[in-house]
Design a protein that fits this description.
The protein is α+β, with helices and mostly antiparallel strands and 332 residues long. The chain has nine helices and 17 strands. Strands 1, 2, 3, 4, 6, 14 and 17 form a seven-stranded mixed beta sheet that branches. Strands 5-15-8-13 form a four-stranded antiparallel beta sheet. It has a two-stranded antiparallel sheet with strand order 7-16. Helix 7 crosses helix 9. The longest helix has 17 residues. It is globular. The chain starts with 9 loop residues before the first helix and ends with a strand.
Length: 332
């Protein structure tokens, strides 16, 4: 038997994420813990927050030292090579909440101020291996994305907004889970904002049931220049799939709208109505949940039942905002 896989390629992870079972279009509201309102979860933070204690940090540092002694690169780290026996039960609880609960967890207390940037990245990568299997985040096979302001123009359709300080609209990423580790918050702004896509579906079903079937048919998604030569500059992806009582949603307001810049990319009236409805309801403070990520906070979100956004921010030039991003598959 060969060595355990260390991570999924970008193509493999994308295929996995979009291979979603579908059996029917729901005709009744969906319940369960993933169908939450921000107003409800703001008064129940213990459900979605966890804090590392000194013993947890010691366990991480022992695993990190084992990796360093073995001389492993990040790509060579696996779950077995980053052992966390004392944390396994807690991590299993985090995963259960992400996969079958409200869809997200915030874990606080990673001592990033006391560690080097490389140590923080290693700890985050190691924790990721215990939650699932990491995957590359773009065709360049980037494993840990650096979310910071590179000074690029946010008005350029080929610039990824996470590389700017601009507002980012609600969207999902092409992996089961997206994780963020905050190394340095912004001076002002940069607030994380999340919304339940199950709740958005329920609201659409209540107010515009005529539009719900459209969610289960393909929308055009702007490829932003990452399509293969000779292929269309957009892909066709159905936002929703439903099977065995579970709704899985991929939503990307910006890329579903910007496709109109391309030949053949005009939105239909129903498509525009769905996007306008989701964006309007998600913007309601009673529906979404805002949170500030401080240095050492990790946020893990399911891209099947959560859409996330970020407010614009202003940096301290001496200490610019910097987060690490991790994509994970849960079936490993």
């Amino acid at each position: 038997m060969g060595p355990a896989r260390s991570y999924h390629s970008f193509a493999a992870q994308t295929r996995r994420y979009f291979t979603r079972p579908h059996s029917a279009v729901p005709d009744a509201p969906l319940g369960g813990p993933a169908a939450w309102l921000g107003a409800q979860l703001r008064i129940r933070p213990k459900r979605w927050q966890s804090t590392l204690d000194a013993g947890d940090v010691d366990a991480l540092e022992r695993a990190m030292e084992q990796v360093r002694r073995a001389g492993l690169t990040l790509e060579e780290v696996t779950r077995a090579r980053f052992p966390l026996p004392d944390l396994s039960a807690r991590i299993a609880g985090w995963r259960a909440e992400i996969e079958r609960g409200c869809g997200f967890m915030v874990v606080r207390g990673l001592p990033v101020a006391a560690w080097s940037a490389d140590d923080a990245a290693l700890a985050f990568w190691g924790i990721g291996h215990h939650l699932g299997l990491p995957g590359a985040q773009n065709p360049q096979q980037e494993l840990l994305g650096h979310v910071t302001d590179y000074g690029e123009a946010g008005s350029d359709p080929f610039v990824r907004l996470y590389r700017t300080s601009a507002n980012i609209d609600f969207h999902c990423d092409a992996a089961d889970v997206v994780g963020l580790l905050c190394l340095q918050p912004a001076r002002t702004g940069g607030q994380s904002r999340i919304v339940s896509t199950v709740t958005l579906f329920n609201q659409l079903l209540a107010e515009r049931p005529d539009l719900t079937p459209r969610l289960f048919e393909p929308f055009k998604l702007d490829g932003r220049g990452e399509h293969r030569p000779g292929s269309p500059p957009f892909s066709l992806i159905a936002p929703c799939a439903y099977a065995d009582g579970t709704l899985r949603t991929f939503y990307h307001s910006e890329y579903m709208r910007s496709v109109e810049r391309l030949a053949g990319g005009a939105l239909s009236d129903d498509e525009r109505a769905v996007l306008d409805f989701y964006d309007r309801v998600a913007a309601d403070p009673a529906v979404h949940l805002d949170m500030w990520l401080e240095a050492g906070d990790m946020q893990f979100l399911s891209n099947h039942c959560i859409a996330h956004a970020r407010t614009a921010y202003t940096d301290d030039p001496e200490r610019p905002r910097h987060l690490l991003r991790l994509w994970l598959s849960l079936d490993e």
